[in-house]
Description:
Layout: E1 14-15, E2 18-19, E3 33-37, H1 44-47, E4 68-72, E5 81-88, E6 93-100, E7 103-112, E8 117-122, E9 126-129, E10 138-144, E11 151-160, E12 166-172
Antiparallel strand pairs: 1-2, 3-4, 5-12, 6-11, 7-10, 7-12, 8-9, 8-11
The structure holds zinc ion.
Amino acid sequence: xxxxxxxxxxxxxxxxxxxxxxxxxxxxxxxxxxxxxxxxxxxxxxxxxxxxxxxxxxxxxxxxxxxxxxxxxxxxxxxxxxxxxxxxxxxxxxxxxxxxxxxxxxxxxxxxxxxxxxxxxxxxxxxxxxxxxxxxxxxxxxxxxxxxxxxxxxxxxxxxxxxxxxxxxxxxx
Length: 173
Ligand SMILES: [Zn+2]
């Protein structure tokens, strides 16, 4: 191509030298984007595409274009505390609905004074239990699932503590 930017390429009008459907977007960091990776012998038009992000598959830049069009996933989410709180007394329970990544860590700390265990139900799938924790002991349980992030997680916590005992929990993901 001779660098003529006002040329029709396939499907209609050009926007700043690009077909409308190839108008580049900034990328919001949360969803996939596409980019054109010009080959070593790419023409000027294709080279000009380097570094641009498209919010959907842009299609070839021009007929017979051999540049790679690559789908790029968003950067991995940094885990953070999405919920925390206290459980007090025998059989205290709480249901947390949180928005997190594909992995969560549930950490349970028995504040005592009596030994206690916890039962957990995540996404209404399967009960898990901690060992019996002495005062000041903690245990973490890990869960993962696949899908677009952020994901919704439902965590039901059930405290098998003695009367007058308490515990704290945190969910990181
Ligand atoms: Zn090309």
